[in-house]
Amino acid sequence: MKLTMIAGAVTAAALMAGGAAVAQASTGAAAGHATSCAAWARAHTFVEIDKAKAAPRGAQTVTGFVVRVHCGGPDDLQYIATSKRYTGHVLPHATIKVLSFAKGISFPRLPESQLPKWIAHDQSGRIFTVTGPAKAITALTEQYHP
Predict the structure, then answer these.
(1) Mean pLDDT of the chain
(2) What's the structural domain count of the chain?
(3) Which residues contact 70 (CB under 8 A, 6 or more apart)?
């Protein structure tokens, strides 16, 4: 009986120590994720595009609002539209990938000429990462966040 109680106490102590180690490890992992999320957010430009229209020579002009990324929280990150206006010039032959739910989640390439219609009817939030400077955008990729 005494041996069973000692074994039980040792097991309980091991579980508590393991639980503390797991809690510490998960806190460290969360901190690491927040750091990598923040680095990712700083390395990208995010825009909520509210309008796209054809521009000369096959280009597109997009307008909207700058979006900031908040890292952390129950969903790991949130996109937060700001009041800062954004205007960009999408170069002809830029890579435009949009969010589609037609066959699961996918990011098909969209021809530049279809961007204005896509933006007008998009139901996925219209938040895009922008590659390149605002005057010479080479890629737009719509973001997914459930």
Answers:
(1) 81
(2) 2
(3) 77, 78, 80
